[in-house]
């Protein structure tokens, strides 16, 4: 049962990079078994097709547009995930949507897709995230650990 934890986002657009930053924080604080891959997917181009196809479960960590207030966190699973793509937040989301659609057509899609998301506050040009978004990254890391546990995987804190 291979699992991919994929951090998504553009770190040059402030809070749009929250998925990558949360994935980095997770990777720095936790170890996972060999069948779990933790990857910085950046803006997720078509070159990610083979990587995603090689995993049974995908946990995408990203900035999301849900209509909730900034810094709100959400977990989307199963049928909830396609709704995530209706309100496009940034150019990379089209790439992930296209990847998942292509994988379904080829019958290579992961068995399950989960999105751990955060509603961004600022999407301007810059490497710094807003303080409010940076403050929720530890909770996003916890959400990743909880999603892995839901899939039967124990993440171990680094010492």
TrEMBL record:
One GO MF term attached to the UniProt entry: peptidase activity
Gene3D superfamilies the record matches: HybD-like (3.40.50.1450)
PANTHER family assigned: HYDROGENASE 1 MATURATION PROTEASE, HYDROGENASE 2 MATURATION PROTEASE
SUPFAM superfamilies to which the protein is assigned, alphabetical: HybD-like
Domain of life: Bacteria
Species of the source: Azospirillum formosense
Record bears the keyword Protease: yes
The keyword Nucleus is annotated on this UniProt entry: no
Protein name: Hydrogenase maturation protease
GO annotation, biological process: proteolysis
Family: Belongs to the peptidase A31 family.
UniProt keywords, alphabetically: Aspartyl protease, Hydrolase, Protease
């Amino acid at each position: 049962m291979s699992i991919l934890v994929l951090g998504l986002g553009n770190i040059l657009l402030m809070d749009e990079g929250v998925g990558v930053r949360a994935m980095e924080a997770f990777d720095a604080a936790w170890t996972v078994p060999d069948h779990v891959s933790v990857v910085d997917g950046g803006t997720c181009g078509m070159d990610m097709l083979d990587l995603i196809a090689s995993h049974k479960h995908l946990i995408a960590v990203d900035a999301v547009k849900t209509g909730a207030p900034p810094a709100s966190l959400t977990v989307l699973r199963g049928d909830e995930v396609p709704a995530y793509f209706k309100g496009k937040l940034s150019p990379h989301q089209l790439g992930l949507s296209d990847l998942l659609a292509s994988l379904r057509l080829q019958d290579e899609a992961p068995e399950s897709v989960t999105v751990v998301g955060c509603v961004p506050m600022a999407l301007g040009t810059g490497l710094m995230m807003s303080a409010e978004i940076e403050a929720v990254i530890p909770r996003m890391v916890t959400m990743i650990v909880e999603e892995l546990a839901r899939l039967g995987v124990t993440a171990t804190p680094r010492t």
